[in-house]
Every structure is written in C-alpha cells, then in structure tokens.
Design a protein that fits this description.
It is a single chain. The chain is α+β, with helices and mostly antiparallel strands and 389 residues long. Helices cover 29% and strands 28% of the residues. It is built from twelve helices and 21 strands. The strands form five sheets. Strands 9, 10, 11, 12, 13, 14, 15, 18 and 20 form a nine-stranded antiparallel β-sheet that branches. Strands 3-2-1-4 form a four-stranded parallel β-sheet, sandwiched between helices. α1 links the parallel β1 and β2. The protein is globular, with a radius of gyration of 20 Å. It starts with 14 loop residues before the first strand and ends with a strand. Belongs to the PurK/PurT family. It is an enzyme of class 6 (ligase).
C-alpha cells in the first residue's frame, strides 16, 4: 500500500520532524544537512545529542499530545529515532492530516514485541518459539513447555538487553518477573535459542514499496549490547539470500517506510530465526556511513520523503566498533589524539555530557581488504578511548 509523502518538488527545503534527539537523530540530522533538508527534533532533554546538528530543537515529550501536535504543525513529515512513541499518539496526528512515517499502524505492529512476533508468524517468517506470560499460570505453562533455561522478556520499552531475563532454574522465576516490572508491565517467554552467530540486515523501503537491502552483517555482543559489527558476514550466499528474504518480508508485512534494523539468529544447522525488528535506523548499520554509497540515514530520509533510494553497494570489507562507557563520569573522551592517529579509523562521538556503564558514547568505523582487517583497525582506535571520571 503506498503512503502519502511530502512533495519534494514544490516544498523545498523539506522539514523533517524527528521524535527523539539521541545519536540516531544526530546522524539523521547530519545526513539531512547534506541533502539540503532541515531537521527539527522533539526531545525532553536540553542537552540531547541531536540538538547541535538540528535546525531546531523543541524541548518537550513525545508522550504529551499537545507538544506532539504543536511540533507536527512545524514540519513536513514526522519520523522516529526509537520505537517507544505510542502508536495511538501517532495515529492522532495522522487523523489531523500529518504525515507520520513509519506509520502509526507500522509502529503498533512492531513496538509491542509479542504482537510483532505473532504478526511475523502469521506471515510465515521463522521466529523462536514464544508465548505470552500474563500471570503466574502462564509463567508455569512456559516452564512446562520450554523447560530451563528460557528467556523472559518485556513486550515494550526493552533495548540492549534491559528488557530480557534468562530464567535458568525455578529460583529465577520470581526474580525475573520482578526485574522486568511484574506481570502488569507486559511479559512474554521465549524458548532458549542456542544460536552460533547473530546477524543483522538493514532494509530501507520507500513510499512506493521499493526496497534497498544492505549487506548481511555479523553483530557481536557483549553483555547484551552490540560491541562490534563485521560486514559482510562470513556466511554462505544461500544463507545471505535467506536473511534477505526474511528481512524484506518482515518490513513488507508491516508496510514499513524508512530504514529498519532486522536482527537474526543463525542456528547450528545453518538455518535462521528472526529475533526482532526495529522501525528505525539501527546500530548495526552505522558502518554504512563510510562503507556504502548511500548510508542507512540518508536512505531513511529519502524513503520518508518519497524520494528515490540510493545505492547500497559495499565499497570494501568494513567493521564498526561501539565506544561504550565502562563507568559513570563525564562524557569527555580521553585518549582522543591516540585514537585519531590510527590510519583508516573514522571516529564518531555523540556529544553526550555524561558517561554511564554500557552507554553508547560513540563508534569507530573502518574499511579493509577483509572485515577482520577492518575490525582490527577499528578496535585499535576504540581501545584508546576512555572517559573522565
């Protein structure tokens, strides 16, 4: 189903409204500037990362209907940098004639991960076995069905492992429910999945249904947070094609518009399961800034504005390493000169004023003859960085 989009031929420069002002909005704003577009962000923090790159920063919450409406009236199209904006509030904007992409219906299908998995199953996309856990009886049903270990997850608002709890034995059951906010928070259970590799694909789809599919990457995790990405992933052409088919199928199933991050598990037998999808530009696609003809950020803007998508051709092997804070302190990087001295390393910092454990403060990308060669360069540069106490 095609979507309405701003008319780039008669309304230039286009003004893109982004709900959220974090690092993803920052990189979208930088890409918009290259295209001659203007970005306005709505964020409750006066020091959000995107503030310096955006043409305008509105201090406010996307959970406030009045703030949302006032913001919408100043822009041509609204998009998101996270999946936490309530779909009902976006639907209210659509009813008043504002363009929201991804649409409120897409967000409704994706932001609740139980609903997302049920939808993917209806479209025949393989996922890990799951079931709702609304109360103690359903929790015990999960135990009897999946055995130990299994994973208890929040249906909404989880990210970087914060919404997951591994239940290894009966003593973990109550602890898991409590940590995730209780049954009232909305929970579901997932069968333990002994994967051998985590993969990811960025798919961008525009308002006419045209898709651009970026290469399959290997996403390496540490403590449930992505630590590095290698591209292309060391998988067979058949496995890559299976990943592409699943990723595109998932985005088409929700009638998505924009760049979507699709995470997958590879099992021991080489088959794939779709883990989850995010209706936004994604950490696993940061490498596209240097490694692809058109980045996930630029293509997201093209997509939501109804413009032709750019080439996603990969220029060489590539890697990305996240710069994660290890402890609380100032956001000022130490070791910057040494990191900058590493040939071939491209440093990106998000300008966050405070460092917190596991917080993403920036990333390093590198190109190389092989993904591992690129990874060595990126890791060398990232290894020099720490943050002031």
């Amino acid at each position: 189903m095609p979507h309405d989009s701003p008319n780039a031929n008669t309304n230039w420069p286009l003004v893109i409204g982004i709900l959220g002002g974090g690092q993803l909005a920052l990189m979208l704003a930088r890409s918009a500037s290259q295209l001659g577009m203007r970005v306005h962000v709505l964020d409750p923090s006066p020091t959000c990362p995107a503030k310096g790159a955006a043409a305008e920063h509105t201090l406010g919450s996307w959970s406030d209907p009045e703030a949302l409406l006032a913001f919408a009236q100043k822009v041509d199209v609204i998009t998101v940098e996270n999946e936490f904006v309530e779909a009902d509030k976006l639907a209210a904007l659509e009813r008043q004639g504002h363009t929201v992409l991804p649409s409120s219906e897409t967000m409704r299908l994706v932001q609740d991960k139980l609903v997302q998995k049920q939808m993917l199953g209806r479209f025949g996309i393989p996922v890990v076995d799951f079931m709702p856990v609304a109360d103690e009886d359903e929790l015990q049903t999960a135990v009897s069905t999946f055995g130990f270990p299994f994973v208890l997850k929040k249906r909404t608002l989880g990210y970087d492992g914060t919404g997951n709890f591994t239940v290894s034995e009966p003593a973990d059951l109550q602890a898991g429910v409590n940590k995730l906010g209780g049954f009232a928070a909305g929970l579901y259970a997932e069968k333990w999945c002994p994967f051998t590799m985590e993969l990811a694909v960025i798919v961008t789809r525009n308002t006419t249904g045209t898709t651009a599919i970026y290469p399959v990457v290997e996403s390496r995790q540490h403590n449930h947070v992505c630590s590095s990405v290698l591209v292309p992933a060391a998988i067979t052409p058949e496995q890559a094609n299976a990943a592409y088919k699943m990723a595109v199928g998932a985005v088409e199933a929700v009638n998505g518009v924009g760049s979507f991050g699709i995470e997958l598990f590879m099992l021991e037998d080489g088959t794939l399961r779709l883990n989850e999808m995010a209706p936004r530009v994604h950490n696993s696609g940061h490498y596209t800034l240097e490694a692809c003809d058109c980045s996930q950020f630029e293509n997201h803007l093209r997509a939501v504005c109804g413009l032709p998508l750019g080439s996603v051709a990969l220029r060489s092997g590539a890697a990305m390493v996240n710069i994660l804070a290890e402890k609380s302190g100032k956001g000022s990087p130490v070791g910057l000169a040494d990191a900058m001295a590493v040939p071939g390393a491209c440093l990106h910092f998000y300008g966050k004023l405070r460092a917190e454990p596991r917080r993403k403060m920036g990333h390093v990308t590198a190109l190389g003859e092989t993904p591992l060669a690129a990874l060595a360069t990126a890791e060398l540069a990232a290894g020099h960085i720490r943050f002031e106490d």
